[in-house]
Structure prediction request, 944 residues.
Amino acid sequence: MNATPSQPAPALPLAAPRRATMEPPWVRRLLIGLTVVFLGLFLILPLLSVFIQALGKGLGYYFSAVTDPMALSAIKLTLITTAFAVPLNCVFGVAAAWSIAKFNFPGKTLLITLIDLPFSISPVVSGLIYVLVFGAQGWLGQYENAEHPWFPGFQSWLNDHDIKIIYATPGIVLATIFVTFPFIARELIPLMQAQGRTEEEAARVLGASGWQTFWQVTIPNIKWGLLYGIILCNARAMGEFGAVSVVSGHIQGQTNTVPLHIEALYDEYNFTAAFAVASLLALLALVTLVLKTWAEHKKNAALQAAAE
Amino acid sequence: MNSMLFSRQRTVLPGFKLTLGFTIFYLCLIVLIPLSAIFTKTSTLTWAQFHEVATSPVAMASYRLTFGASFGAALVNAVFGLIVAWVLVRYNFFGKRLLDALVDLPFALPTAVAGITLARLYAENGWIGHLLSRAGIKVANTQMGIFVALTFIGLPFIVRTIQPVLEDLDAEVEEAAASLGANRWQIFWRVIFPMLTPALLTGIAMAFARALGEYGSVIFIAGNIPLKTVITPVLIMGELDMFSYAKATALAVVLLVISFVLLLVINLLQWWSSRHHEHL
Amino acid sequence: MSVEVKNVTKKFSHFTALDNVSLKVESGELVALLGPSGSGKTTLLRIIAGLEFPDPGAQILYYGEDVTMIPASQRKAGFAFQHYALFRHMSVFENIAFGLRVRPRATRPPEAEIRARVDKLLKLIQLEPMAGRFPSQLSGGQRQRVALARALAVEPKVLLLDEPFGALDAKVRKELRRWLRQLHDEIHITTLFVTHDQEEALEVSDRVAILRAGRVEQIGTPEEIYDHPASPFVYDFLGNVNLFHGRALEGSVAIGATEFVVRNQKEATAPAVAFVRPHDIRVMRQANGSASLPAKVVRSNAAGPVANLDLVRQDSGEAFTVQLSKEEFQQLQPKPGEEVFVQLRNVRVFSDDYSI
Prediction:
């Protein structure tokens, strides 16, 4: 708390001299106070209110809301979606970072910008593009009572197997992959660029095969960055609302993910149940923050080691 | 290695073609091809039709609201984000590490959860809402509510872009200024603040860009009253609910083009900021 | 039998790193590749290791076997990187064992043998107590020794070292290069190392190859290249040198009004530059007939094992430096501003188009 040099000088009535690069105590206290009030009002209070409102009608009600068949079905759909989105984006992230960080080729900067693109697109627009591609009259859409002008084979295959993309699970998975697309790649690219390629070269000269080099040298070096990216990707995949809302169709028990289920409960003025389910996602957010802080620490240590 | 793509390929590390090929394939499949659908869909509209949809009174009202609230929120965050970053980097106090970790809450908390929470807090019978309503201030179902929600989601952008720059600032620069006779306030305004400016502007642009497209945290608190509290993403959603894809797409194009321009601005700011950093 | 490179050319998009280089290293030899930065020495080393690939037409032979098309992982070259490239997540022991552990099952030694071999190498590099440490816990010199042991563990046919002492401070550098020489005398492995430090190259190696702008300028034993530099570049690169502008005569050079005998022949009466090392100049109080040159003392400095004298020629004003032993300096006691006479030995003459 006290960064001013506090010499044990009881004889002096005045405080020790203040360092030139330190503000007067009243300014410090004011700024700390402002920070605590602002963050308390905007972060801590909302977080607490989620749990308090969730338990507003007692534990029994809380558990019945969370274990309601509709809630369970939403949880299941969210887990399925995440189980597709995170591993796929993980493979993509590692592949993209490998090619970008370990090799030189023209157009690299453009590629990095394109990878980041989904972050700057509104979630609603992210959902919309999949509706345009797969929805009625889309490029790969299902035409009702009509033949598709370009890909009739694909349409009849989907119809024969009774597969729906939009307003069904595949659409939700695709939209989720889109919004979580850059998370892992953008963590790994700078880390692997900083680490360079000499350790891999050393492994190759020592006789290691490409796979051995990748698994025994590259992966151990990037594991914290990878974990960090996976944590962020997972949080967003489980919590995505806007994009999924566009492609879902909102069929309770079928195409509602957890966030969509919360919306449905809220719209029915069933606030306590809505907050009960929301508290699950709030817990997820807290776990994410803890894991993220820990992985970030490890990742920064790896980056620092690379800079040595 | 520069001519690697075009000449005979021999490298020590394997997998270049495989990984780059997969990267480009996946990028096209998930991002670029679906995204291009939006422009081909728009091209089915004539210019007059596009113009009519994109500049209709509801659309114009939604742009004004979205821009205004996003910009206001970004500015408020600029002030408070700067204070928060400063306090977290410079001072030690009880609970600092906890607060530091919590700054990322708006990133980690799903927007729907943030949305219903803020809506309940600021409702007229909510914890904060009933206090404010005594003072005659209404937040829920007003433009004020949208502003509150956008402030919430924008906060980490500013703090997290300023923090590292503040941590890297050389104490000697401040000491030099002090030895030349500057007081603390002068040191801040004339020495520290100019060095933070690129990062601050980048943070503002990022928070602004995020706020423009925000949906989940806004819809619950906004009330979505036509011409008053309908932001552009909600307007697009409404068109989609009525299956008017062309109209929805036209509005989406407007939003998308603005996002791309902002992306360009952010990249330029970051480029400027890294150059700024090198010159030190 | 040897390691040999033939006609190696390597062009990057903007410049030529290596321009038709051929080089032969005899079995068991320790050869230094010496040159300034950008001379192509590291590129050549990486090409020999298989980390970089030469333009078509080149040939790389290990003991007569053409390895040009063989990937780095199968060449059995030991390579020590400039910044060591130790695997940071592995202990010293595991770093050294890596090359043995990644072998296919059929040729991988049993665990006990791996341990025995690593222990032997740890002993060789005198780091037995550090086996369990991680690279981040070692000093620079220790890291370099681990990197060497790791390269040696796979029993390479050739050992390639890229600026092995480049990142170390002066004292550790000297220790380590003596150690490397001893190590080489013990295990006699064909070794090439890259350096930009002439003192290092001359002290450690059996032969030195001097590279300049992608070409081999001269190759020979340290004595040969020091005493018989083939070009002004080599002369200059191998140590301090003074330049005297004059005219070449038959077997001698005229500097001002004085003639000196030269060690290399040049055609007569051409404008020329005479190269003389600072310790090959004798300073006298009295003129010694026509064979001495008048000069003025500018500054003297006797700190250290030898004394240095800055002089200027009385006739042309050209500045030069002289190295004297402590005894000579005591006898002479030169003061700034005094006039002295100098005599030049071991003079070499090159034509006038060279400037340092």
Observations:
- DSSP finds ten helices and 20 strands in chain C.
- The CA atoms of residues 216 and 234 of chain C lie 11 Å apart.
- Chain C touches chain B through nine residues (CB under 8 Å).
- The longest strand of chain C covers residues 16-26.
